[in-house]
C-alpha cells in the first residue's frame, strides 16, 4: 500500500500539484487519470522520489519514504518497478541485457539463474526471439513490454506505469493492460497506472483518482464514474460519442 | 553568479560520482568499455595529427634555421621538446576535448532526455557514479598512453622528413633528439595529461548529466562541454607549467 499526504510541487513560478492526498492499494490497479498536462507524470515522479515534492509525505507500507535515509531509500527502490512514459530502455544494451541489468546490479544469481529469470519475464510479456535485438530495432509496443519485463524482474512490491499503452493500437493496448492486471493480482503488487485512455480505465480501473489542473478532483472506481455528477470528470470521460452512448445505455 | 552556481553543482556531482561503486564486477566491465570508447577510439586521430604535425614542425624549423651559426641538430631537439612540452599534452588534449568531450556529453545527455538516467536512479543505482566514474578513470588511464604515443609519432614524423627531404640529415636529427634530453619533461607532460583527462571527462559528463529538454539541448550541452573543457585545459596548462617548470 502507498499513501500520499498533501503532495505539492511547483517548477519555478508555476505550481503543478496542489495538496494531493490519496491511497493506493495492493493487489489492485490504481489509476491516476486526467488530461494531458494535468500533472500525472509529475505526481508519479513525486511519489517515486524522482522529483522532490515541495512538501507532503509519501508512505510505502507505513514507512515514510520522503524522510528515509539514502540507504533506506535504496532498499525501498529495489522493491519498485517503473515503466516510463517513453520506455527508457538502455539504448546501448540489448533486450536481454536491459532486463538482466537489475539482476546484475542487485542479486548474486549465477549466470544460468539470471538467464532463466530473464526468459521467464520476457515470456510473461509475450516476447520471444528478440533477446539480442537493440531497443531501436523493435516496435514501440515491444519496447513497452520489454520495459515492463525489466520493471518486474526483481519481483517488485510496487509497480508504476506511466501511460503504458499510449501510442499503441487498441488490441495491443488491451493485451498490455491485461498483462499488468494479471501480474498485479498474481503477486499482490501495488500498481499505479497513469492514463488518459478510456479503454484502459473501463477495462482495469479498480481505484481511480482524477487529477484536474494539478488538484485531486474526484476518486472512485470505474463503475462510480457512470454515476458521478462531477462536471469536469464527465467532460473528460465522456468526451467521445462512444462513451456518451455507453453511459446512456448503462443508465437506461 | 552563474559561474559560481555551475562550479558548485559540478563539485556536488563529482562528490556523488566519486563514491565507492557497489558492484565492482559490473563497474570493471564498464571501465573496459569506456577505455575502448575513450582511449582506443582516439588512437586514429592522435596518430594522424601527431605524425603530420611532427613532419610539418620539422620542416618549418629546418627552413627557418638558415644561419650557419645554428647547429643543425637543434632541429631534432626542437621537434622533440615541442612535442614533449606542449604538443602531445596540451594540443592533443584540445583535440580530445572535441572528440572525447562531445562524445561523453552527448551520450550522457541523450540518456538524460530519454529518461535512462531516471531509470537508473529509480532502480536505486547511483547514476552519477555508474555513468561518470568509469569515464573519468578510463580517461586517466588512456590519456597518458596517448601522450607517449603522440610524442613518439611526432618524432617519427620529423624523422620521415629527415629521410625524405634534405632540409636536415638523419644523423643531425637523431643527434638532436638525444641532445640535452631532460627526462623530467616527460613526467611534466604526463602529469599535465592526467589533469587534462580529469578536466575533459568530468566537465563533459557534467554538461551531459544536467541536460534538459530535447535533442537540440543535447547538441548545446555537447558544444558547452567542448568549449568549457578547452578553456579549463588552457587555464590549467598555465597553472601547471608555472608550478612544475619554474
Ligand atoms: N521539469 C519540468 N519543469 C517545468 N515544468 C514542468 C516539468 N515537468 C512538467 N512540467 C509541467 O507540469 C505540467 C504537468 O506535466 P505532466 O508531464 O505531469 O503532465 P501529464 O499529466 O503527465 O501529461 P501527459 O498525459 O501529456 O503525459 C505541465 O504543464 C508541464 O509543463
Ligand atoms: Mg505524462
Describe this structure in words.
The complex is a heterodimer of chains A (252) and B (246). With 252 residues, chain A is of the alpha/beta class. Helices cover 41% and strands 25% of the residues of chain A. Chain A contains 10 helices and 10 strands. In chain A, the strands form 2 sheets. A 6-stranded mixed β-sheet of chain A has the order 6-7-8-3-9-10, sandwiched between helices. The longest helix of chain A is centred in the last third of the chain and has 18 residues. Chain A is globular and about 55 Å long. Chain A starts with a strand and ends with a helix. The mean pLDDT of chain A is 92. Chain B has 246 residues and is mainly α. Chain B has one domain. The mean pLDDT of chain B is 94. At the A-B interface, helix 2 and helix 3 of A face helix 5 of B. The structure holds adenosine-5'-triphosphate (ATP) and magnesium ion (MG). Magnesium ion binds next to helix 1 of chain A.
Largest sheet of chain A: 6 strands, mixed
Structural class of chain A: alpha/beta
Strand content of chain B: under 5%
User: Any idea what the radius of gyration of chain B is?
Assistant: 21 Å
Distinct helical segment count of chain B: 9
Separation of termini of chain A?
Answer: 37 Å
Shape of chain A: globular
N-to-C span of chain B: 34 Å
Q: What's the helical proportion of residues of chain A?
A: 40-55%
Shape of chain B: elongated
Average predicted local confidence, pLDDT of chain A: 92
Low-confidence stretches of chain A: none
- The H/E string of chain A reads EEEHEEHEHHHEHEHEEHHH
Number of strands of chain B: 0
| Fraction in helix of chain B | over 70%
Amino acid at each position: 500500500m502507498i499513501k500520499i499526504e498533501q503532495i505539492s510541487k511547483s517548477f519555478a513560478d508555476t505550481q503543478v500539484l496542489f495538496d494531493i492526498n490519496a491511497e493506493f492499494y495492493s493487489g489492485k490497479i490504481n489509476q491516476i487519470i486526467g488530461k494531458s498536462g494535468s500533472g500525472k507524470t509529475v505526481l508519479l515522479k513525486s511519489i517515486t522520489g524522482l522529483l522532490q515534492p515541495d512538501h507532503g509525505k509519501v508512505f510505502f507500507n507505513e514507512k515514510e519514504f520522503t524522510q528515509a535515509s539514502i540507504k533506506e531509500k535504496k532498499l525501498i527502490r529495489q522493491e519498485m518497478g517503473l515503466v516510463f512514459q517513453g520506455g527508457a530502455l538502455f539504448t546501448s544494451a540489448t533486450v536481454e541485457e536491459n532486463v538482466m541489468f537489475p539482476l546484475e546490479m542487485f542479486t548474486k544469481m549465477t549466470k544460468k539463474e539470471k538467464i532463466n529469470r530473464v526468459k521467464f519475464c520476457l515470456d510473461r510479456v509475450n516476447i520471444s526471439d528478440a533477446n539480442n535485438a537493440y531497443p531501436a530495432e523493435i516496435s514501440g509496443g515491444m519496447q513497452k513490454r520489454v520495459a515492463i519485463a525489466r520493471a518486474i524482474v526483481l519481483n517488485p512490491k510496487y509497480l508504476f506505469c506511466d501511460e503504458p499503452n499510449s501510442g499503441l493500437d487498441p488490441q495491443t493496448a488491451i493485451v498490455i493492460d491485461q498483462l499488468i492486471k494479471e501480474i498485479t493480482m498474481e503477486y499482490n503488487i501495488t500498481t499505479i497506472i497513469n492514463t488518459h485512455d478510456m479503454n484502459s480505465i473501463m477495462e482495469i480501473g479498480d481505484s481511480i483518482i482524477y487529477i484536474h489542473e494539478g488538484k485531486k478532483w474526484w476518486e472512485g472506481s470505474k463503475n462510480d464514474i457512470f454515476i458521478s455528477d462531477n462536471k469536469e470528470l464527465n467532460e473528460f470521460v465522456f468526451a467521445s460519442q462512444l462513451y456518451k452512448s455507453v453511459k446512456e445505455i448503462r443508465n437506461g | 553568479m552563474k559561474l559560481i552556481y555551475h562550479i558548485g553543482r559540478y563539485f556536488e556531482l563529482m562528490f556523488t560520482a566519486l563514491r565507492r561503486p557497489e558492484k565492482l564486477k559490473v563497474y570493471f566491465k564498464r571501465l573496459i568499455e569506456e577505455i575502448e570508447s575513450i582511449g582506443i577510439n582516439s588512437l586514429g586521430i592522435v596518430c594522424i595529427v601527431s605524425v603530420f604535425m611532427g613532419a610539418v614542425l620539422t620542416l618549418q624549423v629546418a627552413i627557418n634555421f638558415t644561419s650557419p651559426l645554428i647547429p643543425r641538430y637543434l632541429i631534432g631537439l626542437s621537434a622533440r621538446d615541442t612535442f614533449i612540452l606542449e604538443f602531445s599534452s596540451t594540443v592533443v588534449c584540445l583535440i580530445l576535448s572535441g572528440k572525447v568531450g562531445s562524445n561523453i556529453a552527448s551520450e550522457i545527455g541523450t540518456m538524460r532526455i530519454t529518461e535512462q538516467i531516471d531509470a537508473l536512479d529509480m532502480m536505486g543505482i547511483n547514476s552519477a557514479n555508474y555513468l561518470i566514474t568509469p569515464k573519468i578513470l578510463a580517461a586517466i588511464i588512456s590519456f597518458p598512453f596517448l601522450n607517449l604515443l603522440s610524442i613518439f609519432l611526432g618524432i617519427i614524423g620529423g624523422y620521415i622528413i629527415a629521410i625524405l627531404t634534405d632540409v636536415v640529415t638523419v644523423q643531425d636529427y637523431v643527434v638532436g633528439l638525444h641532445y640535452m634530453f631532460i627526462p623530467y619533461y616527460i613526467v611534466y607532460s604526463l602529469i599535465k595529461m592526467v589533469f587534462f583527462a580529469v578536466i575533459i571527462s568530468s566537465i563533459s559528463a557534467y554538461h551531459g548529466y544536467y541536460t534538459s529538454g530535447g535533442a537540440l539541448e543535447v547538441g548545446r550541452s555537447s558544444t558547452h562541454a567542448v568549449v568549457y573543457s578547452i578553456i579549463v585545459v588552457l587555464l590549467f596548462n598555465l597553472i601547471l607549467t608555472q608550478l612544475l617548470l619554474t
